[in-house]
Write a structure and sequence with these properties.
Its main location: cytoplasm. Its cofactor is Mg(2+). InterPro entries: NDK-like_dom, NDK-like_dom_sf, Nucleoside_diP_kinase. Belongs to the NDK family. The protein is 38% helix and 18% strand. It is built from eight helices and four strands. The chain has a four-stranded antiparallel beta sheet with strand order 2-3-1-4, sandwiched between helices. The structure holds 2'-deoxyadenosine-5'-diphosphate and magnesium ion (MG).
Length: 152
């Protein structure tokens, strides 16, 4: 089933020049980019985005980190996109992430794990995050020429 997922290259990924590589991986996989915004997250947006982690010992550091520099916020669309993006990202801790995954190829530290993606085990988190970062008219509906070759 086609679905949309929220993906973000975090400040460490942007600063390390990994944005293009990460976009390429999703393009190569066949996912369709339907929204993108290069932006800096303020405190309020950060606290809302990571609301599920409020009260945890790492929360303040996480908010400080995610607001510390620009991010590339994106919406990617495709069959099973939420779960497939999570599989491509690897585990939350890069140290546990298999080589070949984004975190497994580009990270070493839990607090600097390069990328965010909506949680496929938290139904509705994709919609929530997309709504939080994008207005309706910032998402683009279009047909990609390779769709007939990607899907049976
Ligand atoms: P994910 O980003 O894989 O969805 P999450 O939602 O559990 O992971 O946590 C959000 C971010 O918070 C995660 O990318 C890195 C940070 N984080 C999670 N658990 C942590 C911990 N125990 N110590 C420090 N940072 C942590
Ligand atoms: Mg999460």
């Amino acid at each position: 089933m086609s679905e949309r997922t929220f993906v973000m290259v975090k400040p460490d990924g942007v600063q390390r020049g990994l944005t293009g590589e990460i976009v390429s991986r999703f393009e190569d996989r066949g996912l369709k980019l339907v929204g993108a915004k290069f932006m800096q997250i303020d405190q309020e947006l950060a606290e809302e985005h990571y609301g599920e982690h409020e009260g945890k010992p790492f929360f303040d550091g996480l908010v400080e980190f995610i607001t510390s520099g620009p991010v590339m916020a994106m919406v990617w669309e495709g069959d099973d996109a939420i779960r497939q993006v999570r599989r491509m990202m690897g585990e939350t801790d890069p140290a546990d992430s298999a080589p070949g995954t984004i975190r497994g190829d580009f990270g070493l530290d839990l607090g600097r794990n390069v990328i965010h993606g909506s949680d496929h085990e938290d139904p509705g988190s994709n919609e929530r995050e997309i709504d939080l970062f994008f207005d309706e008219d910032e998402l683009v509906d279009y047909e990609k020429v390779d769709e007939g070759w990607l899907y049976e």
